[in-house]
Amino acid sequence: MRRTTIAATFLTVAMSWAAIALWLPGCGIMPGNADRYAARPAPKPQYAEHLTLTLMPFSWEGGLRWREDHPTIQYLNRKFNIDLQLQWTDGESYKDKLNVMAASGKLPDMFQVEPDMFVNWQDDGVFMDLQPVLDSYSHLSQAFSVGTWRLLNPEGALFGIPVNVVSNSDSYQIRADWLEKLGLGIPEEDSFTIDQFYTIVQSFALYDPDSDGISNTYGLSVTNLLTGEAQTNSAQLRAAFGLANEWALQDGRLVSQYAQVPEMKAFLGFLRKLYAEGLLDRNFREKGFTNIYDDFQSGRTGILTSHPDSLKSDELLLQRSHPGTRLVQLPPPIGPNGQRGNPTNLQGVNKSVINGRIEPAKQERILALLDWWATDEGTFIMRNGFEGLHFEINEDGSATKKPLTDSDLPRLLDNWFFSRSDIAVGYVYSLPEEIEFNRRYYERNAKYPYVNDAGGLEVLSLAYRWYYKKLEEAYRDVQIRIIRGELPLDSVDDAAAAWRRGGGDRITMEINEIYARNKTHKAASNTGAEEYSK
């Protein structure tokens, strides 16, 4: 496989911080003029040939997905003369499934890839090159900035469509009803420390917060990944102890989390203390995000990292089995040296790709669908569904949500598969107070960014692609064993040395060389801006 010099092609990348689950384009689509895009029969298709298209979207939050006869699928089938088949796949197994499908030559017509897979497969003919045709799809081509389109693509080619993400969508959410029962109160944002976080975790584990007289709650549940991603439920703790979200810029150079020995000891030492005292879920070694989400929904834990739409929906779900449940946003705890942060994402590093090996007619039909999706009409329908089914337009021009919205979830594909980047908070039926709630939620999150300062550059390192996965797995095994008390805390010293010897130093050298070849590389800040320029 050739080694690309993609870093030299980077331009400006714009990141948006807004709702990952609640947004409308910032072009005037609000309840007052929603009837412009009210449901109506799909127009007669312009396409003579009937095609079957397979799309493979993620499924998160307990396996959410559309029913097979979903109204949006039916609408798209009529509009584009297609049979749209959605291969919903659990987010935690998505990458493994793609590898199996690629090995068997049965990849779907359109799917998503993470940065490493996107770079590794660029020479294999797996992805359609959009560069020659993108300008023919005016709405799609303008859905993202030029820099976001170019990110991680080799010069002269565009192999992927940026996946729209929110830079600071997630923060801790906590059972406020448990805090009140235990007499702890809601933590104050400006003074909430890691010691206070410990007290909450201890109380949730030991003092029967659900008042059922049974010892059946954890203080905290985390996944076995222990990375800076939101789904691990430990990113805020890493930030508190000064540990990098993969890579940190220190004195002009990028430093790996695995080379930060004092910070890693502090982070692992905190989790080790929780585990030893019975405050951390004893089975965290076997758990992914779906498992800790189930723990939260079942009332076994009271702290979860998620976004504001999830806060509201999870609160409603919990109230069915645990009346009186109340969830509130929890600020990230302040560490011993005053550091804190919420997990922060970079726009455009993940891609939706069109299969480069399918017939051109299918590729063109997918692009036509996406081009419509990027219009005001397409965005509105893919976000809100249809009048009469999912919402009603009132006489004053406002809209009211109908019950089917909560089961149909019209927004799922727009959230998890494709959406354009100009976003604002709200659905067609959102009340002003709901819009304000989400706006303030993201505003608070953005005050405490916890960003990977390499910002996607790491996958351009050949050494990273060769060594990183194996090194990460070996280091993680040591991390888990330290937390469980099977190894002493000082084992971090040996693990860090082994990481450096095994390829970590080579990775660090290459990533810094790539970084240096960019005249500017401003990491995502509380404004949500990320810039690359040649």
From TrEMBL:
Q: Which UniProt keywords apply?
A: Cell membrane, Lipoprotein, Membrane, Palmitate, Signal
Superkingdom of origin organism: Bacteria
In the UniProt record, the signal sequence range is none
Tell me the InterPro entries matching this sequence: Bact_solute-bd_prot1, SBP
- Protein name from the UniProt record: Extracellular solute-binding protein
What lineage is on file? Answer: Bacteria, Bacillati, Bacillota, Bacilli, Bacillales
